[in-house]
Amino acid sequence: MRILFINHSFPGLFASLASALAADSGHEVFFASSYGRQERPIPGVRKIRLGTNETRARTASGELESMVMAGRLALRSFEQLTKNGLAPDMVISSSSGGYSLFWNAAFPGAFRVSWTESVSVLPDRDMALEPVFTRHLVQCRQALSAHLVVSLTAGQPGILGNSLKTSVELPYAVDTERFASVQGSPLIMDEQDVAAFPELVLLAASKRQTGDLYLARLLTALLAKRPLCHVVLFCDTMTTRALMKEYCASLPEGIARSLHISGMLSLNKYKSLLGKAKALVYPPGCVPQATALLDAMSCGAALVLAGEGHIPRILKDGSNALVLGNCQEAEDFAGRLSSLLDQGEKLRAIGSKARQTVCTHFDQKRVLPLQVGFLLEMYHIWKEKGDAALREVLRTRKSLNN
Description:
The protein contains 13 helices and 15 strands.
């Protein structure tokens, strides 16, 4: 059986799954990507380098143009793969980068699996001109052209599960041995070792918070109460990081000198940062991203979240996370957060329970065999009985636990 993975980076979110499928000698596994931070090979996986589109879009229309170009370049590579007699039986793809935009034309006879991270909310109208809006539209297009749509979930309900007959929710597979807390490594940010500060807090930051008066008031109130505290703004994208640098430069010097902005970190530095920080805080308006959330929990981070928005069901207030009630005033949130930071033992217990949750429900040693078995079962149903039979099976199995 020939299996092709498509993703903008190698191996990205497919590292464990590609390795697990390639471990079966009956599988021939290929991986198509445009670039890869992790260039070390995966045993049994053959890499295909796709054409790179260097354009960095800042608008929805620019992003669409970029993704269409990437999709066309990828289509040529896929057509060549078929000409060489290597057409895949199964294609597993993310929608990132637009490389699978024309996959139904490239592989009409293959079992196509759209592999996505669960989306709990649609981009709102304020994001209509942003690249993220286009990415969501492309993800929806891919889902509609797939035989099977897999939404990875950390316990939060996704919108695709309720909308498509071909969708199913599967749990993330987390490498809990790789994502485990370490301490002692220097963490240089802004030419300072943040690991040496007496108190360190991680605060999740998203693009919509740049220029937000609430965030400025929160940081001002927190640092006024805790002058020895340093805050690392944990940015969700490189764009957010650049905007946060401008944002912090506009703040009073007394606040700005206690703020640090995370860039791209090595795995060891990332784990060291989580191990050193007293808490990982999601302030109002910042929605937890499932992959980052699970990795942090696996590293034993003590999570503190605002009591509004979309909180995954796996998080239990007072057990593996702390949820602050709706704090409309930033000063109230800062005051309650400051009180929690004085309770070191409680925060350590929360972090320990968070790791235990991930080890119990998302450890890849348990989840990966279930994911692989499910994919192969669905492929054989489709291959032997057709689309209608597959949809009927999926109707009664909307999650891996059904």
